[in-house]
DNA sequence: ACCTGAACACCGTTCAAGT
DNA sequence: ACCTGAACACCGTTCAAGT
């Protein structure tokens, strides 16, 4: 006992540590108080209630995401590099990012990247609503992909199982396709290929 | 009291009704028991525990999704129609589908559509791994988009706010783009445009 | 200004006991 | 085979009381 004065920062740090080590479900007010060595009710003075604590935690996580530097020779390549860098960042802190997802702020994490994308679609010659549409399309695709991956990781065993669903008959005699769909997904490759395909269409000169 | 015998089906029906009317957070074992007019503990005999109850509920929701009929003249158009139909289905039962999301089974809902997609990419001339990649790319994009939309609906107010972030300066002098990015997203149009763009690239003859 | 313990209203779950 | 109430171990939150 007789510990040093509690601060809002300390509460947030300890809360983040708890989440990082034992996952979001371990973050209860009582466990947090135990970890801090204070009474449960002290926390309330500093952060209001559990809801605002989570808000603050998520806010910090979003703010801590690093800047993104586009790489590559063409605008298309640079857009793809931004997408890949963002995905890598999000996968670095799975638990905290999971909380960001749960609180519906996944898109917020994309905002720093948005400026970089604007520059690239401009470089590719797009303007106005068309440029905005392209930026948004990439944004939705990247954020969506990250959400899908998280979804998959949480449900590793698909109950009927994709495998038996994809016997050769169902694949219309295309055995290579049946094998590919029955096997595991190479998420990294699929992500890159999908972004590349989308960007290619979006940046094309045609209407 | 002296109510008719409790059945597993009745438990699931009532649970689904509770979710449909008051959202997933209203589904507690005690509220469910009250609704059913039984003791809390009776429920446990029929469904095991809360976790399996939710599993069963989600399973039923997924199974109840209707079949999808592709429409359109070209394979590309029919792929887009499958994507749009699926999105429409998912938006019909927001609460139950939210639970499907939370339990990581969003992709499961896509399986019925997968067969239709295989037929279309075959019709477009793709085979084997390339065909499988195309199917998966569409699958991830559609599921991802639905997840993003749900994310947005849960966080209607973006705290810094996209609006003030997109003053004309940040948009590199492109005022039409600034206006477009500051305004609300036309999710329906963006979805269709994105899928169309992706599908166009994927089904193209080139490697 | 900051911290505390007691108390409240909720959870999910177990279990021995009933029919 | 099915249902019950009592009890347990957890929650988040409020509040009057302390310093």
UniProtKB/TrEMBL annotation, chains A, B:
Annotated source species? Streptomyces xanthii
Q: What is the lineage of its organism?
A: Bacteria, Bacillati, Actinomycetota, Actinomycetes, Kitasatosporales
Q: What SUPFAM superfamilies does the record tag this protein with? A: Homeodomain-like, Tetracyclin repressor-like, C-terminal domain
**InterPro entries documented for this protein:** Homeodomain-like_sf, HTH-type_TetR-like_transc_reg, HTH_TetR, Repressor_TetR_C, Tet_transcr_reg_TetR, Tet_transcr_reg_TetR-rel_C_sf
Q: What are the GO BP annotations of this UniProt entry?
A: negative regulation of DNA-templated transcription; response to antibiotic
Question: Any idea which UniProt keywords this protein has?
Answer: DNA-binding, Repressor, Transcription, Transcription regulation
DNA-binding region, as residue ranges, is located at 28-47
Q: Which Gene3D superfamilies match?
A: Homeodomain-like, Tetracycline Repressor, domain 2
Record protein name field: TetR family transcriptional regulator
Positions of the HTH tetR-type domain: 5-65
Q: Name one GO molecular function term.
A: transcription cis-regulatory region binding
User: Known PANTHER family for this protein?
Assistant: HTH-TYPE TRANSCRIPTIONAL REGULATOR RUTR, TRANSCRIPTIONAL REGULATORY PROTEIN
> Pfam family example for this protein?
TetR_C_1
